[in-house]
Amino acid sequence: MLLERRALMLGGAAWASLPRMAGAQSANTIKLGVLTDLSGAFADLAGQGCILATRQAVQEAASLGFRVEVVSADHQNRPDIAANIARQWIDREGVDAIIDVPASSAALAVAGIVKEKNKIYLASAPGTAELHGSQCNANTVQWTYDTWMLANSTGGALVRDGGDSWFFVTADYAFGHSMEAEATRFIQAAGGRVLGSARYPFPATTDFSAFLLRAQASRAKIIELNFGGVDLVTAVKQAAEFGLGRRGTTRVAAMILFITEVHALGLAAAQGLVCSESFYWDLNDRTRALTTRLRQNFGLSAPTMVHAGCYAATRHYLRAVADMGVAAAKASGADAMARMKAMPTDDDAFGPGRIRTDGRKIHPVYLFQVKTPEESRGPWDYYKLLQTTPAEQAFRPETEGGCPLTRA
Q1: Please, which residues bridge with residue 3 across strands?
Q2: How buried is 407 (Cβ within 10 angstroms: 0-12 exposed, 13-18 middle, 19+ buried)?
Q3: What is residue 246's predicted lDDT score, i.e. its pLDDT?
C-alpha cells in the first residue's frame, strides 16, 4: 500500500508556532483521505492528480480557521483493499471524509463502510449510478459523472447520427455492467439495436483482439467500449490495427473518455471520437483559471473531470464544515452531508449547482468531439463542443433511481 501524508493548515502559517495539545489539535482538525489508483489503469485520470486537486481545495479554504490534514493511499482497484484502508483510516487514524475511489466495485464497498461509521464519502472517479440509486446512503455524494449521464449524452447522440446497431465490449465489474445496462436502454429507446456483447476480465486483460474480432464479426455499426483508463487506450489502438473506426467502416465509440486518454492516444488516433464530460479545462474563463492554479501550484497540466470533482467536492465539504462547526461535522457525517445538500454549490470547475436528496451532484454535461491534429491550436487543445445538456436534464431523474432517501 502506498501512503502519503500531507498536513495543510487552514487559517495561517502561525499554527506551527502555537502551543497545543494533541487532543486540541485533533478537535480542530478535519482529516481527509484520498483513496485512489496510484499504480493501475486509472492512475492518470485519477491518481496523483486527485491528491493535488484536493490539496488545491484545501489551500483555497485557508481563511476558514481550522486545520486540515490530507492522507492518501493506493487501493489497487480492489474492493477488499479499499475496504481495509477505509476501515483503518476511520477506526485508527481519525479520517473524517474519504475522497475519490476509482473502480465502482471498490467505491460501493467504501460507501457501505462510510455509512456504517457515519463519515463522509466524496465520490469523483466511480461511475456506477447505483451510488445514488438503490445503494445510495445519507453519507455519500456522487459528484462528477455516472453511467446514466454518459449513456444519455453520448449514446443518444450516436444513435441520432446513424449508429443504429451496436456491439458492446465491457469490463466485467460493476461500472461495466452498469454502463452496458444504461446504454442498452438509451439505444433501444432511440430506435437502435444491440447485437451482442463480450465481457473481459478486469483488470487482468491487456489483449483485446479476441473481443474486438467478435464485435467486428457482428457487423454492428458501433462497437462500444464500456471501460476507460489504460485499457481504453490499448483497445482503441488494437481496434485501429484491425481497421475498425476508419471512415466508412464500423465506428468505435468510447462511452467514457478522459483527456488523459486522448493525450496518450494522440490526436491522429483519437480524432473524431465523441465523448461526454462534465469538465474541460478550456471550456470557459473559470475552468481556465482553475487549471492555471493547478499548473502553477502543482504542475498538473490539464486536469481531468475526476480531478476537478475531487477539487470541487472537497471545497464544498470544507465550506459546510465551516458553516456548521468542526465538532458537529466530525460527530456526524450524515449531518455534514445534509448541510452540503442544503448549501448551493459554486466553483471554478463546474459553476453553480446543487446536491439532490439522493446524493447526486448535478451540473451541465458537455458532448465533445476530439479534434483533428490540424484543428488543435497547441498542447491539450483536444476538444470541440458539440452540445450542452442542462443540469436538470443531464442526470437520471431522482424519482427513477430507487434511492431509499427519496421515499422519506
Answers
A1: 73
A2: exposed
A3: 53
CB 355, CB 385: distance < 8 Å: no
For strands 67-74 and 351-355, give the pairing. Answer: unpaired
Q: Where are the alpha helices (DSSP H) in 15-134?
A: 22-27, 47-60, 79-93, 104-117
Residue 217 main-chain phi, psi, to 5 deg: -65, -25
Q: What order of strands is seen across the sheet that includes strand 140-142?
A: 3-9, 67-74, 29-36, 97-100, 120-123, 140-142
Q: How far apart are CA 398 and CA 20, in angstroms?
A: 47
Strand order in the sheet with 361-362: 345-347, 351-355, 361-362
H or E stretch including 235?
Answer: helix 229-241
Residues facing 92 on adjacent strands: none
Q: How far apart are CA 151 and CA 149, in angstroms?
A: 6
pLDDT digits (tens, 9 = 90+) for 302-350: 999 999 999 999 999 999 999 999 999 999 999 999 999 999 999 999 9
What stretch of H or E contains 29? strand 29-36
Domains, the chain, in order of start with CATH, read 3-145+284-364 (3.40.50.2300), 148-281+365-394 (3.40.50.2300)
Helix/strand/coil for 43: coil
The answer to whether residues 146 and 400 touch, using CB atoms and an 8 Å cutoff, is no
pLDDT at 319: 98
CA nearest neighbour of 106 among 89, 117, 121: 121
Three-class secondary structure of residue 171 per DSSP: strand
- d(CA 362, CA 389) in angstroms, rounded, equals 11
DSSP 219: T
Cα(67)–Cα(96) distance, integer angstroms: 13
**Assigned C-alpha cell, 201:** 476480465
Convert 77-90 into a string of H (helix), E (strand) and C (coil): CCHHHHHHHHHHHH
